[in-house]
Specification:
This protein is an alpha/beta fold. It contains 19 helices and 24 strands. It folds into 3 domains: 3-240, Aminohydrolase, N-terminal nucleophile (Ntn) domain (Glutamine Phosphoribosylpyrophosphate, subunit 1, domain 1, 4-Layer Sandwich), CATH 3.60.20.10; 254-343 and 391-444, Glucose-6-phosphate isomerase like protein, domain 1 (Rossmann fold), CATH 3.40.50.10490; 454-597, Rossmann fold (3-Layer(aba) Sandwich). Helix 7 (265-273) packs parallel to helix 13 (408-428). 57% of the residues are buried. Bound molecules: fructose -6-phosphate (F6R). Fructose -6-phosphate is lined by residues 306-309, 353-355, 358, 361, 405-406, 490, 494, 611-612.
Length: 615
């Protein structure tokens, strides 16, 4: 979850690091820090200023520069509060080794006891600091920095990446990883390390992914990668998607990334649908790497994911069961792996992940592979760890998503999963070609419908203004309205910090109705199952709730419905199964408008990070 960057061989190393930290801020922003080799020693600056830590670091480093080798870090706090003392880089007792880390060292307490017993002094509450003292011990014993890191990784338990420099080898950056992503890159005369390609876009020409337990020694003119036993290894070369350019990772005139990304949703859908149909009208999913025969053999689907991706997975369940007639389970990835799921070789496990790196989902997919199932990942990041490890991949082509709250990737995931459901139906013969073709044509109407919905933002802003100081929200829906309700509630809590719960509307009366009182806002998705929803709305209104109804155009009776105070209209969608991709948009806009009214930083909500590589 933290962001890491390392540079060597660049006269502007500090500038490159700070710029990279800006681009990595979405991974965490509780603190930021940098260390460089300067003269015959190390220089370090750190800052912790809530969501503005990188800006504070910029101020702290103003006027500095000229060093050629350094490392930087943005932190999402796990062990130890978001303070300067806990900010990375951490240094050893001699002050000659500096280290940054992402992930968790699970046996840090035991290692710290042993190190303290041997006389090491700790100056933070982090799990990270043990790593730099362990490195110090190895180096003091005569090991070169790369060998020392390999030895440290053999003792440190957990999922993590780590990058270090030493004043005694001033042009070397060493890096290693286990289960969380780290890539190395180079250009003529400069070498780089980063937790994510976005930090290095425009800087390097060759990119490589480090595999689990590999250690890289990066120098200005060389890159050496070794396996855990010290044997030379080949890192995996990455081709960087040209769509992921520097411009795509900038705000482009919008106030924030979230707004920009919401407005990119029509394009994200279009790109995700692009080129998925053969000349004979049948669907082709080239990157899947699983053929029709493999998929025809499947007799059960399990979708694993977290957060918004999980909600997209819920939509997939309805689509796969309806069209491909395959029993489909959807499970929160962090729960899946610990419950001994019943899996076999005819099960298809689909991981859904914007980043392709979320540790819970990655480990769930690994668990599935150990059980002998086929695995497929729906990812927005080509070459992400999940995509590299799974049997097949289906890419959402939404471009980089920087705002922590997922918007365009969520909608692109829904669309990709609907395409997958149609492809499964086609290959299994549960839908004929004309039906698949018609549904695929209707999917192509979504970009325009989403565009039209975005054009209604003023309506949403007016509702947000009217809701004023409300602090408690329920989002309710039935059938496909349920995952949309969950997503609406998640968006609102993430960026507005207001209490928001998503519920299947029929479940309200089984408990949560006790919480409804005057002042509670109930956002109700009237479709599908409008008649049943109407009753649930009336039940909430009778208890004093302020009801906001989400209704499709062409339902004029909605304004007269008992208890409905506000109505958000969305364009009617030709196929109800595709409605979530449109219905979720006003809920994103509502969360955005309420958060902005509260003065919150919508791109960097407190306590959160974009890529979650801890369990
Ligand atoms: C919510 C959000 C998170 C992610 C979740 C999974 O707006 O972004 O809930 O959906 O952390 O992340 P990925 O999709 O990268 O696996």
């Amino acid at each position: 979850m933290c962001g890491i960057i390392g540079v060597t061989g660049d006269d502007g190393a500090l500038e490159v690091i700070i710029d990279g930290l800006h681009r990595l801020e979405y991974r965490g922003y509780d603190s930021a820090g940098v260390a460089t080799v300067r003269g015959d020693g190390l220089w370090r600056a750190r800052a912790a200023d809530g969501t503005h830590s990188v800006e504070a670091l910029v101020t702290a480093t103003a006027g500095c520069g000229g060093d050629r080798t350094g490392i930087g870090h943005t932190r999402w706090a796990t062990h130890g509060g978001p303070t300067v003392e806990n900010a990375h880089p951490h240094v050893d007792c001699t002050g000659r080794i500096a280290l940054v880390h992402n992930g968790i060292i699970e046996n840090h307490a035991e290692l710290a006891d042993a190190l303290a017993g041997a006389g090491h002094r700790f100056s933070s509450q982090t799990d990270t600091e043990v790593l730099v003292h362990l490195l110090e011990t190895e180096v003091a014993g005569g090991a070169a920095l790369g060998d020392a890191l390999r030895a440290v990784m053999s003792r440190a338990v957990g999922a993590y990446s780590v990058v270090a420099i030493s004043a005694d080898d001033p042009e070397l950056v060493v890096a290693g990883r286990r289960s969380v992503p780290l890539l190395v890159a180079n250009d003529d005369g400069a070498g780089f390390v980063a937790s994510d390609v976005s930090a290095l876009l425009g800087r390097a020409t060759r990119y490589f992914a480090l595999e689990d337990d590999q250690v890289a020694e990066v120098r200005p003119a060389s890159l050496r990668v070794t396996d855990p036993d010290g044997a030379e290894a080949e890192p995996t070369a990455l081709s960087v998607d040209p769509a992921w350019d520097v411009v795509a990772a900038q705000k482009g005139g919008y106030d924030d990334f979230m707004s920009k990304e919401m407005h990119e949703q029509p394009r994200a859908i279009e790109d995700t649908l692009f080129d998925r149909r053969d000349h004979d009208g049948s669907l082709v999913l080239d990157e899947l790497h699983l053929g029709p025969d493999d998929l025809r053999a499947v007799d059960k689907v399990v979708v694993v994911a977290c957060g918004s991706s999980y909600h997209a997975g819920m939509v997939a369940k309805y689509a796969i069961e309806r069209w491909a007639r395959l029993p489909t389970e959807v499970e929160i990835a962090s729960e899946f792996r610990y419950r001994e799921p019943v899996l076999h070789e005819r099960t298809l496990v689909i991981g859904v992940s914007q980043s392709g790196e979320t540790l819970d989902t990655l480990e769930a997919l690994r668990e599935a592979r150990r059980a002998g199932t086929r695995t497929l990942v729906v990812s927005n990041v080509v070459h992400a760890t999940m995509a590299r490890e799974a049997d097949g991949a289906l890419y959402t082509r939404a471009g980089p998503e920087i705002g922590v709250a997922s918007t365009k990737c969520h909608v692109a995931q829904i669309v990709a999963l609907e395409v997958l459901a149609l492809a499964l139906a086609q290959w299994r013969g549960t839908l004929g070609r004309p039906a698949v073709s018609l549904l695929f044509d209707q999917l192509h109407e979504l970009p325009e419908l989403v565009e039209e919905t975005l054009g209604r933002s003023k309506e949403v802003e007016a509702v947000a203004a009217a809701l004023g100081g409300a602090r408690d929200y329920f989002f309710i829906g039935r059938h496909l309205g349920y995952p949309v309700a969950l997503e609406g509630a998640l968006k609102l809590k993430e960026i507005s910090y207001l209490r928001a719960e998503g519920y299947p509307a029929g479940e309200l009366k089984h408990g949560p109705l006790a919480l409804i009182e005057p002042g509670t806002v109930v956002v109700a998705l009237l479709d599908p199952l409008r008649e049943k929803m109407t009753s649930n709305v009336a039940e909430a209104a009778a208890r004093g709730a302020t009801v906001v109804a989400l209704a499709s155009d062409g339902t004029p009776e909605v304004a007269g419905l008992a208890g409905v105070e506000h109505v958000l209209h969305v364009p009617a969608v030709p196929e109800p199964m595709f409605a979530p991709a449109v219905q979720v948009v006003p809920l994103q806009l509502l969360a955005y408008a309420l958060a902005r009214r509260l003065g919150n930083d919508v791109d960097r909500p407190r306590n959160l990070a974009k890529t979650v590589t801890v369990e």
